[in-house]
């Protein structure tokens, strides 16, 4: 087995045991492999080990990989910061976007989504730990923003995403994930139908699963440490 294949197996096993610990079905938790900074061969290796959903954080890097991996049916997710001048490339090339955090960007993605593709699946990113440097809508904006995004014709709002401030303690890790889940539940009480909580990375996915994550976004634990990339998020 290659390193990536055995790392993937270890991550799947850890997801399954976190699910059991939380009294949840492992099948309700989707593993998104975060492949930013890694070359197409690494993704190919993961694909051969059964991984089909991959996430990227930099548009140009992603477009190069999408072109290099045309021959395999990958589902591409965008999880990075979104500049206005990149919305067309994102709308044309991805199945999911997890990092929508303002209405103007959502409107552009909807306008630019090609008619022959299914609606773009989106999550609203929330700055759940209220860090000044982090992207994401602040929690008190979430209600208005979610209802506005849900009305856009070529987007399908699936849920919320967050990248909380890191912590080493599972109890502390769980708090922001619980807050995100509560925001999602409140939106559903208001009539939205959001089935997705995109939360949990290599160091905190067990806590996220305990609080209801339906998508965990994992890079390092699958592909290894990333070389510095200038503006890693
Ligand atoms: C890089 C990244 C991840 C993956 O982080 P790891 O710690 O490598 O698992 C998850 N989510 C987002 C938004 C990222 O930018």
Walk me through the structure.
By secondary structure, this protein is α/β, with parallel strands linked by helices. It has a single domain (3-223), classed as Alanine racemase (TIM Barrel, Alpha-Beta Barrel). It has helices at 3-21, 40-48, 59-68, 87-93, 103-112, 142-150, 170-189, 205-210, 220-223, and strands spanning 30-34, 53-56, 75-78, 96-100, 120-125, 155-161, 196-198, 215-218. It has an 8-stranded parallel β-sheet. α4 (87-93) packs across α5 (103-112). The radius of gyration is 17 Å and the shape is globular. The mean pLDDT is 96. The site of pyridoxal-5'-phosphate has 14 residues, from β8 and α9.
Features:
binds pyridoxal-5'-phosphate; TIM Barrel; 8-stranded parallel β-sheet; alpha/beta; about 230 residues; globular; single chain
Topology readout:
Blueprint: H1 3-21, E1 30-34, H2 40-48, E2 53-56, H3 59-68, E3 75-78, H4 87-93, E4 96-100, H5 103-112, E5 120-125, H6 142-150, E6 155-161, H7 170-189, E7 196-198, H8 205-210, E8 215-218, H9 220-223
Parallel strand pairs: 1-2, 1-8, 2-3, 3-4, 4-5, 5-6, 6-7
Helix pairs in contact: 4-5
The structure holds pyridoxal-5'-phosphate.
The site of pyridoxal-5'-phosphate (PLP) has 14 residues, from strand 8 and helix 9.
Task: Give a quick summary of the entry.
The chain has 233 residues and is an alpha/beta fold.
Helix content: 40-55%
Helix and strand string, N-terminal first? HEHEHEHEHEHEHEHEH
Unique bound compounds: pyridoxal-5'-phosphate
Percent of residues in beta strands: 15-25%
Question: Low-confidence parts, pLDDT < 50 over ≥5 residues?
Answer: none
- Which fold name corresponds to the CATH topology? TIM Barrel
Structural class of the secondary structure composition? alpha/beta
Q: Describe the sheet with the most strands.
A: 8 strands, parallel
Terminal Cα separation, in Å? 30 Å
The whole-angstrom Rg is 17 Å
CATH architecture: Alpha-Beta Barrel
Q: What's the number of domains?
A: 1
Just give the CATH class: Alpha Beta
User: For the largest beta sheet, what order do the strands appear in spatially?
Assistant: 7-6-5-4-3-2-1-8
Give the name of the CATH superfamily. Answer: Alanine racemase
Provide mean pLDDT, rounded.
Answer: 96
Which outline best applies?
A: globular
SS element count, helices: 9
């Amino acid at each position: 087995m290659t390193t990536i294949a055995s790392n993937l197996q270890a991550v799947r096993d850890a997801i399954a045991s976190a699910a059991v610990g939380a009294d949840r079905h492992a099948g309700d938790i989707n593993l998104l492999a975060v492949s930013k900074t890694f070359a197409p061969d690494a993704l190919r290796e993961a694909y051969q080990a059964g991984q089909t959903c991959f996430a990227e954080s930099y548009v140009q890097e992603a477009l190069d990989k999408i072109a290099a991996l045309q021959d395999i049916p990958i589902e591409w997710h965008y999880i990075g910061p979104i500049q206005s001048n990149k919305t067309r490339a994102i709308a044309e090339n991805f199945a999911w976007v997890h990092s929508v955090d303002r209405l103007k960007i959502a409107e552009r993605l909807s306008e630019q989504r090609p008619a022959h593709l299914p609606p773009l699946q989106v999550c609203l990113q929330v700055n759940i730990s209220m860090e000044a440097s982090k992207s994401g809508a602040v929690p008190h904006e979430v209600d208005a923003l979610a209802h506005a995004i849900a009305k856009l014709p070529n987007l399908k709002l699936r849920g919320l995403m967050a990248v909380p401030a890191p912590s080493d303690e599972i109890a502390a890790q769980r708090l922001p994930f619980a807050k995100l889940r509560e925001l999602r539940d409140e939106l559903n009480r208001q009539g939205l139908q959001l089935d997705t909580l995109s939360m949990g990375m290599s160091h905190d996915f067990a806590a996220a699963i305990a609080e209801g994550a339906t998508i965990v976004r994992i890079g390092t634990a699958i592909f290894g440490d990333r070389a510095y990339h200038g503006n890693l998020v």
